[in-house]
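Quick one:
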Amino acid sequence: MLPSPTVSAHPGGFPWAIGTAIPQGQLLRYMWIAPQTVVVDTILPVPVEPPAPDVTANGAEQIPASEGAPQYAVWRQTAVVPGYWVRQTTAGVYYPQRWTLEQTAPGAYRWRLLPAEVRAR
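Output:
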């Protein structure tokens, strides 16, 4: 066989090469991210029932002079953020598309679908 600049003289490639290049890295392990239980407390105003009007001796109704302090209640909700598998490679960590809770305002939350991402090492 004649020497060629495009064909290696070694049958397995260059002698210093370990193997084919893998840009995404070699898989090291799969990691399970466990589901998370989240407790969301929301403060809500509660309508106050006005007290019964007092009837005086002359039959006229008295209107209360001032309203009472506003009443609030705590609405407790429990949500479970689902778990997912993460791939750890020599190039970085690969996170799949996954659901999470996002706080949009104080006391307001919504579900958000996070895109798949790679975090380099």
